[in-house]
Design a protein that fits this description.
By secondary structure, the chain is an alpha+beta fold. It is 22% helix and 29% strand.
């Protein structure tokens, strides 16, 4: 249970606008909260409440749930950039509702931030959060969080390529070899590759080092969390408490 706060302050923490806007939403009777008898407008005053994780509330007819920190899973579609200021393609952040993009932060950037980036043509699992410690935990190579990719190449693959990737290849800007944590062929032109670090364009550059061009790339898993088929490209959902626990436990 959280400490008591004014309803407008709770709305502000959840990204519903400035404090003035949030106070106005309450005064206009546009917010409903869980009173134990369903979602009701108690009164059009800024009452004190004790928000709890998952607490339902409604703003302008839209149902939400309270989260002290945001932990989100997005199925990134192709043709989107992991940037707040995209250069040529729509931003992945445009796929999220406004409150997730407006959640206040102590840092310069508002809202949830992507945990690492995927290229504009890469699809699959993308985590986003406003919890800096979580983002660092999931992004830092020190923690060796495995990320699984499904890829397809222009030319046929063989076991020689698998061996090279497992032993380590040298990228064009780093003399230190990088290697896959695991690697296996799943077709003549398809491969599953697991990495525990996240260098720039790493999968594509590793395959290029073996003489192959990646033409399709999809991230299917982070840690023990599998994207699955429930989310369609462009859709998002909150992480459950159990999923968050699995992601953040020590490897």
């Amino acid at each position: 249970m959280s400490s008591p706060v004014f309803l407008s302050d709770m709305l502000f923490s959840q990204g519903f606008g400035t404090r003035r806007i949030c106070h106005g939403l309450v005064q206009q009777g546009l917010v409903k909260i869980d009173t134990g008898q369903g979602l009701l407008v108690h009164e059009q005053t800024d009452l004190m409440i004790e928000p709890y994780s998952g607490m339902p509330f409604m703003v302008q007819g839209v149902l939400w749930k309270y989260h002290a920190k945001a932990y989100v899973l997005l199925h990134k579609p192709a043709g989107t950039e992991c940037s707040h200021k995209p250069s040529a393609w729509p931003s992945v952040y445009s796929l999220l509702p406004t409150p997730l993009r407006q959640r206040p932060a102590k840092t310069g950037l508002q809202g949830v931030q992507a945990v690492g980036r995927l290229d504009q043509d890469t699809t699959g699992m993308l985590l986003l959060s406003d919890d800096g410690q979580f983002i660092h935990r999931m992004s830092s190579p020190k923690h060796h969080v495995p990320k699984v990719y499904e890829l397809a190449t222009e030319d046929a693959l063989d076991e020689t390529v698998v061996k090279k990737l497992l032993q380590g290849v040298v990228l064009n800007d780093d003399p230190s070899p990088v290697k896959a944590a695991s690697c296996s062929l799943v077709g003549s032109h398809q491969m599953q590759l697991t990495l525990t670090e996240g260098k720039y364009h790493q999968v594509k550059r590793m395959l290029a080092a073996t003489g192959h061009k990646v033409v399709q790339l999809h991230r299917s898993r982070i840690g023990e969390l599998v994207l699955g088929e429930q989310l369609q490209p462009g859709e998002w959902r909150w992480l459950s408490a159990d999923e968050l626990s699995v992601l953040t436990r020590k490897q």
